[in-house]
Structures are given as C-alpha cells and as structure tokens.
Fold this protein.
Amino acid sequence: MNPPRVRFVVHGGRSAAVLPGGIVGRMPTAALRLADPRVPEAAALVSLRGRDLHLLALRGGLEVDGAADDDIVLAEGQRIVVAGAMDLVVEGVDLPARVLAVALPGQVRELCAPVYSLVLEPAPDLVPAYVEGAPARAWSTAEGWAIDVGQGPERLVAGREWTVAGVPLRAVEIELAEAATAPTASGGPRLTLVVRSTTVHVQRPSRMPYALDGLAARLVTELALMGAPAPWDVVAKEIWGKQYDLPWLRANWDRTLRRLRHHLREAGVREDLVRGDGRGNVELYLYPGDSVVDEA
C-alpha cells in the first residue's frame, strides 16, 4: 500500500512527491525545494488531517486558484502560488485506506482536527480543541499523532489502550469509506445550527448552546443559506455590500474569519465548520448528522 502523499509539478515541469510532515520551501532539507530567493526557507507544510491532505502556510502566504488561503485541502488540478513567487500544480493526491480514531465509551472520534482534549463533564468526550487542565490530549505532529495521558507525550498508534480518570481510551483505525459516512466519527458531537442572520446558535447534545453574533454570525448565516461552496468575495459582498473594493473586503473577510475560528475554538466547536474547499471557494462544512435550522 502506498503511503499518503501529494504529487506536485513545479514551474518548468519538475515533479515531486511530498509525504505528510514534508516541508515546501528553500531550505536544503525541504521535501520540495524551491530555488527562488523570494520563497522562505520553510514556506509550507504538508499535513495529514483525518481523510485529507492539507498544505499549511508557514511563512510568505499561499494562494490557491487566485484566492489567499493558509490551510489548503489538497486536490488534483489545483494551482498553488507559494509566497507570491512560485507556482505549483497538484498532479495527484494519494490518501490512506484507513484513518486513525480514538474509541471511548459509546463513541468513536476520527482524528481530523489539529488537537483534541478529553473532557469529563457532562459526559466523557474527546473534543476538537485545546482545553486547559484536560486529563488527556492528542495532537497531530509531522510524524503522525501524539497523545499525553498524564505521563508525557507518546506516539499514538492503533491498538494502544489507556484508562484516564476512569475512562477507557483505545486507538483504532477506521476504513476511509466507513469514516466518510460514520456519524460518530465526526471529531465532535453532532451540531445543529440555528441561523438567525445576526446570531447563530450552535446546539450540541448534552451541552449548553453557544451563540455567535455580529459579523461571525452573518458569515455563517450567508454560507448556510447558500448551501454550497461559493467564492469568498461573493459571500463578503453579501455581508458588507458591493460598493467596497476587493482589498478592503479581503482585509475584513480575513479578520472576521480569524475571529470566527477563535470563537469556535473557545467553545470547543470544530474550527473546520467554515473552511476553504481547496478551489478558491469557502463553504459551511457539515458532517453526517449535522443540520441547519433556517430562522433568518
């Protein structure tokens, strides 16, 4: 079985395959070395997150199909510009047949967010967020996944078992086809989004609702009403109006998106609820079991 990897074609026809954890940049040890003085030594990192390969911006910025994005879900045919200088074309993406997950009582959590924390109240759960004081955490690394159950970091691999604060945890693998449809492998509780234009109420089983307001709520509402991926500027013009130029809209869009992800992280809601689709568009990303109630 081939390992997960992305195959890039660099300007000029040179082809290179990069595995998860590989650096794209000017440094001599980069998995994909770009010999251009405008490119930082470490410009981007290829990362495996659940069932997708991502290209994460480190320095200098990334653009995909003409739109800036610091977290690109890689897909065949994309044209990516690194640091405003070098063009890469995604020739192909090879994904693993199985993805890593953690089983705990009554549920299985597919690992697709950057970090997870074990919470005990109101019921044991592995939430996609960094929770201060959590008795256990798991996070992605360049080599795969690590876990700390109170005895220091160790590698998280399928078959390992732990008991933390009376909660049994077991690392397992899920077939990719199964993971794509399993509602319990969503990386967090099922979400119900009640969209009301200026507010969005995020409801989760056995938890208090969380309310978004202001521009963050407007962004989520517009994406929910569109129901499909859309170019960022189309969504931005619905929020701020069509009279503003693109640089002004882009600055406000990026600021609002950062605030939205900060609010989601604070609330323990997965940050990929709003994400780029890797083709220059943005979408409301719902897992199986998630739903939207339109009260706008």
Q: What stands out?
A: Residues 177-187 have pLDDT under 50 and may be disordered. The radius of gyration is 20 Å. The helical segments are 176-179, 214-226, 232-240, 246-267.
